[in-house]
Amino acid sequence: MSDYSESAGRFARDTAKHQMTVKHEDGLYRHLKFMNPEHGSFGAFELITWPYNLVVKTGWTFHFDIDATPDMFDLFRRTAFTGQINPGYWSEKVRAGRDEIKGFDPDLLKAEIASTIAQWMRDDLDTRVAEQAEELGFTPEDVRSVSGVRQELARQVRPQWRAANRELREAVHEHFFSDDADYNVEYESEAHRALHDFSFRPEGDTSEYPYYFADWHEWQMSDFTPGFLHCCYAIRHGIDLYDAARKTAEVAA
């Protein structure tokens, strides 16, 4: 998961100069609207509360509830600092809108692929070093313990290893990310199909199996959706504006 800085920046831009309008307030029964009067409905959002419940409407709608907290504003104040969010914990409290909490993230797919390739190439370098050691008469113990042996063997095989590395990365890029790719990996089903179909054997490779993604079903390729993150920021920001308005009113009184 990311630090959500991109979502935070987008929310800050969309809600700059927002003002709060109290459409209804009777104890814990609140209906608050937040918008920039100059921009009309663009970026506007609403918070609606009643005992043990909160609904946020931003274009996306999520309904939170928790039996132990009559004033839901208290829940969000306690579990995140001003201006911050806690989507992991807050997502557990969603009653309606659960299908919109998480979704496929192509950036996470790219990160998982990059991590797998890096591991493949580390393993390939180890294999090449071991084969070179055997060819030159070094034992595995020599490679592990004799100073400089592994470094020298790695230096000897590195040109071929780099060529194989480049060939593998080009094959992966062509399969997943090129303009001519048969898959649109911006979509989860297409990404799964591309992962299932990938198989590559570098030129001259004589190993038993080609490169393929064996454990991609276990990869983390989902994260909180932009809509859910936007709603989380709206809740925290709306509460901050509400608290600031109450403090101003108390001082004026």
Overall geometric form: elongated
Instruction: Classify the secondary structure makeup into a structural class.
Output: alpha+beta
The secondary-structure element order is HEEEEEHHEEHHHHEH
Tell me the distance between the termini: 45 Å
Tell me the strand order in the biggest sheet.
1-2-3-4-5-6
Oligomeric form: single chain
* Biggest sheet architecture: 6 strands, antiparallel
Low-confidence stretches: none
Instruction: Please state the average pLDDT score.
Output: 92
Helix share of residues? 40-55%
Q: Rg to the nearest angstrom?
A: 27 Å
Give me the secondary-structure topology.
Layout lengths: L4 H10 L4 E8 L2 E7 L9 E6 L2 E5 L3 E5 L6 H7 L8 H5 L2 E3 L5 E3 L1 H31 L3 H6 L3 H28 L11 H10 L24 E3 L1 H27 L1
Helix pairs in contact: 4-6
Describe what this molecule looks like in 3D.
It is a single chain. With 253 residues, this protein is α+β, with helices and mostly antiparallel strands. It contains 8 helices and 8 strands, in the order αβββββααββααααβα. Strands 1-2-3-4-5-6 form a 6-stranded antiparallel sheet, with helices on one face. Strands 7-8 form a two-stranded antiparallel ribbon. The relative contact order is 0.16. The mean pLDDT is 92.
Summarize this structure as a short list of keywords or feature phrases:
single chain, 253 residues, alpha+beta, six-stranded antiparallel β-sheet, two-stranded antiparallel ribbon, 8 helices, 8 strands, 16% strand
